[in-house]
Design brief:
Layout (H helix, E strand, L loop, with lengths): L8 E6 L5 H13 L3 E7 L5 H11 L4 E5 L2 H11 L3 E4 L14 E4 L9 H4 L7 E4 L2 H10 L5 E3 L6 H4 L19 E4 L15 H4 L4 E4 L3 H5 L4 H10 L5 E3 L8 H6 L2 E4 L4 H7 L4 E4 L14 H6 L3 H4 L5 E3 L5 H10 L5 H12 L6 H11 L9
Parallel strand pairs: 1-2, 1-4, 2-3, 4-5, 5-6, 6-7, 8-9, 8-11, 9-10, 11-12, 12-13
């Protein structure tokens, strides 16, 4: 690594707060190089006070610019002319921004949804990708664009041991018990298929509930929130709070993961930890029966190509036995996890954010860097 000789600043487009865990290792690496990072945060219905607390917990002392929508964000980028703009999903009308600013896509997940690939329709100068398989696939889909295999920066803090000090009792749980991390996505989700008393069936375990941000913050999913809060009443359960957006600390202490159609499946497996994959989840009426093709279109082929990375629970009745078996023999799927991790998450060596920053600082065609 080297200290950059010229004024460089990097703006991060935070359309959703759950982009932050992907950005923070990169921001930390930039800080080591003396490079200014600015978070451009979109206001949401939870309010600036709560958002500020959340951002502050993940990025202490962060420089924040607040915007209402993408149009305001774009105007800000055109006016401030950052050296680099990092986006976490699609972003319209990048052409004007490119006159003064280089852009990069750091996708907010590595999950099995087709949008993982679709977001590259926003033609950034470069997309940082996780592993050779997905780099090659994206290059074939978008031959005119540039893709660089850097690995998945979000996992760096776990791999580097930065979170080794954490333990279940930090969240009021029992350090003597094995810990389950239940991390369902908001849609399609397995939450609705778990009974109100499910923590009792898992009483010999700690259970950390880390739902998707939308399950707690979006009124559309209020029924999920009610179930989560019901489970949280059990002594062996901890429900992650709204401002605990980052799942990485919980991954660091968990012994086994339960999830569904979520990036978390592949992230946890990339750490060579056992996963129980729920094949049961609630579909909206518009995705059922004759309309089930809509669901298949929403999900990427990788959902099925890498299905044997974990043991599968076809229904809730199978869940307990599957969890028990993975806790008793955590290496039973180790060979599959190691086989697929390079394809899904890239090189898991704790240096992914360093590679991203090296690329940014070594690129010779920087923007004006005017703040």
């Amino acid at each position: 690594m080297f200290l950059w000789k010229y004024a460089v600043n990097v703006f991060f487009d935070v359309q959703e707060l759950y982009y932050l865990p992907q950005y923070t290792p990169i921001i930390a690496s930039l800080k080591k190089q003396g490079v200014e990072a600015v978070l451009v945060v979109y206001r949401t219905e939870i309010g600036i006070k709560t958002q500020s607390k959340l951002v502050g917990s993940l990025c202490p002392g962060a420089n924040i610019e607040w915007v209402e929508n993408e149009a305001q964000a774009r105007a800000l980028y055109l006016n401030r002319r950052p050296s680099w703009l990092i986006i976490g999903s699609d972003f319209d009308h990048l052409d004007g921004i490119h006159r003064n600013t280089k852009t990069a896509l750091v996708n907010h997940g590595i999950g099995p949804k087709a949008c993982y690939y679709d977001v590259s329709s926003s033609a950034t100068n470069v997309r940082f990708v996780e592993g050779p398989y997905r780099t090659q696939r994206l290059q074939k889909m978008y031959p005119e664009q540039k893709f660089v295999d850097t690995g998945y920066a979000k996992l760096d803090p776990v791999v580097n041991g930065d979170l080794n000090h954490l333990k279940p009792s930090d969240w009021g749980l029992d350090d003597a018990k094995k810990t389950i991390l239940y991390a369902p996505t908001f849609y399609p989700s397995s939450i609705e298929y778990l009974p109100k008393d499910f923590p009792k069936e898992f009483s010999e375990y700690n259970v950390i509930l880390k739902p998707h941000y939308f399950s707690l913050a979006n009124k559309k999913y209020k029924s999920q929130k009610r179930l989560l809060e019901c489970w949280d009443k059990s002594d062996n359960v901890y429900l992650a709070k709204l401002d605990q957006v980052n799942i990485i600390p919980f991954m660091a202490v968990a012994d086994v993961l339960i999830s569904d159609a979520s990036s978390t499946l592949f992230e946890f497996a990339a750490l060579n930890k056992p996963v129980v994959w729920c094949d049961f989840y609630k579909l909206r009426w518009g995705y059922r029966g004759l309309l089930k093709f809509r669901f298949k279109k929403r999900m990427d082929e990788d959902l099925y190509k890498y299905a044997d990375i974990a043991v599968h629970a076809k229904s809730y009745s199978e869940l307990k036995n599957n969890v028990d078996s993975q806790v008793q023999d955590p290496n039973s799927y180790a060979e599959q996890r190691q086989k697929y991790s390079l394809a899904l998450a890239g090189n898991v060596d704790g240096q992914c954010s360093e590679r991203i920053v090296d690329y940014i600082l070594s690129n010779k065609e920087l923007g004006n860097g005017v703040v």
